[in-house]
Design a protein that fits this description.
With 427 residues, the protein is of the alpha+beta class. The chain has helices at residues 9-14, 16-19, 55-68, 84-94, 107-110, 120-123, 158-163, 175-189, 203-211, 218-225, 234-248, 261-270, 287-294, 332-342, 345-355, 370-379, 393-408, 413-426; strands spanning 40-46, 72-78, 100-104, 137-138, 141-142, 145-146, 148-151, 154-157, 276-278, 299-302, 317-319, 321-325, 358-359.
Length: 427
Amino acid sequence: MMQRRLWPVALVVAGLALAGCGSAADKGTDKGTDKGSGTGKLVVWDWKSSDKTAVNFVAKAKADFAKKHPDVQLEFVAQPFDNYYTLLGAAIQAGKGPDVMLFNGGGQIRDRADALIPLDQYLAADKDRLAGWDAFSKDGKTYAAPITLQGHPIYYNKTIYKKAGLDPDNPPATWDALVSACATIKKKTKVPCFSLGNKEGYGIQFWMSGMGSGILTSAEYDDWIAGKRDWNSPDVKKLFALWKEANDLGMNSAGPNSTAMFMDQYTKFEGGGGANVFGLMSDVGGWHEMNPIIGPDNLGVMLSPVITPGTTPSLAYDGGVGYGVAKWTKDPALAADLVRSLTSTDALTAYSSDAGAIAADKSVKISGGGPAAAAISAEIPSGKPALHVALSAKTQEVMGRLSQKLLSKDVTVDEAMKQLAAADQKG
């Protein structure tokens, strides 16, 4: 879920030294243990460590690491959110850069697995404590350790539902009911039904994973995640047909293709500019930032309505973000020990509390999240992996462009399906 600003590669590579490169010089860490003491420096790239909500998280991770390796210097470099993967791609092309890197789960890390070292031998002791590993795995090997779980509930504003004369405790449970409710909301409150931002092409990703469990049958869903995707399936086509239909029916806020998801889509929703929004269950775009503005008792959470008869809507979620180790690091075991510190219970407890993240650590409980966080947590045991996360980053990019063309009526659904099938085949 990162916008890619394509800077000239030569300029980016030239800036790598300034952006922070380095590696500990001496080995001395026993694999998968807390023993040993390296020296030198480890450099971490991410897009979170400069946020005020991550200050305690980084401090806890540093403190844990310092107990094991007091002579190793740590440098955290928070790269710009909107061109993180461009910078990372340049580092990979140059074969030098940070020792430890943050990734989104799914295509973003799988497409770059060749530049990372498998961490299974170093993280064996954490396998049972942490959840969300699959999003950071490829071909049976694990390339990063998750710090959060990330998923895609639908949030709604109960106050707007009440003003429209709708039952705020019983959101629409079918597609027809949703269309009807949206028409009522628009007529009686003059508020768009959905706050939508698709400027980066992310809107279709959240739509796909938020609505998919109500559209695809259980077998189709499982096949999709397993890589056996049938782009000619009527239900798969329905995913994109209804994306277009919802906009054609006026269910979305104005100008979705010129509205950024982060953070304009959510600012509109929080300001009463939409009755519903496809959001995140952790960190930004979710309950943690919405509760103080909308009010915890007025923030509702719902799953996809049943669109295809017989489907069972569920929460779509995976490992959210996680830290991996570059193959060029001089001491893989030492860098892996830093990953272990970044995913320690103390560090993840701090991040959960300050950033509103649902931690990948199963022992970390959400506190003060209100009814919305409680409702999301209750859906985790029966949840399934997110549909868009199963796609490669390249396919996601194609899908983003096509989603914009579908909204602007510059491509038909059938044409979009053909192009998506071709992109998915290429990986």
